[in-house]
Amino acid sequence: MNQDVTTSIKEFLKSRNLKGVDVLYDPVGGNLAKETRKLLNWGAQILVIGFASSEIPFIPANIILVKNWTVHGFYCGSYRIHQPAVLEDSVRELLSWMEKGLITVHIFILTAYPRPTLHSLQLKIEKQLGKL
C-alpha cells in the first residue's frame, strides 16, 4: 500500500510539473512517513499529529537541518492543560460545522463499554479506522 500511495503522489506531482510538496500532514507515522518524506521540497513543513501505524517515525536532525525543514508536533490533549479555552472554542466550531453539514463523521462501530476488548481488536484488525 505504501508504494501505491507514494507512486500516486509522484504521478500527481509530475502531471503538474511539481518537484515535491511543501507540507506533509502525517497522522500515520511508520513506513509511510518515511516514504512520504522523500517527496518533500527544501524548506518544507512537517505536521506530526499521530501514529495510526503504531510506529513512531524517526527524522534525523541532520536531514531536517540540510533540507531546512520545520517539524511541528500537534497533540490536541495538551490544550486541555495549557490552553483549555482554545480547545473549547475549537470543539465548538467543529460541532457547528457538523450542524451545518460542512463536515461529516463516519461512525464505524458504536458500542457501550462492556465489550471494549472485542472492539479494540476489531479496530486493530480493520487497520485502525478509528479511535476507541
From TrEMBL:
One of its GO terms (molecular function) is oxidoreductase activity. This is Alcohol dehydrogenase-like C-terminal domain-containing protein. It comes from the Eukaryota.
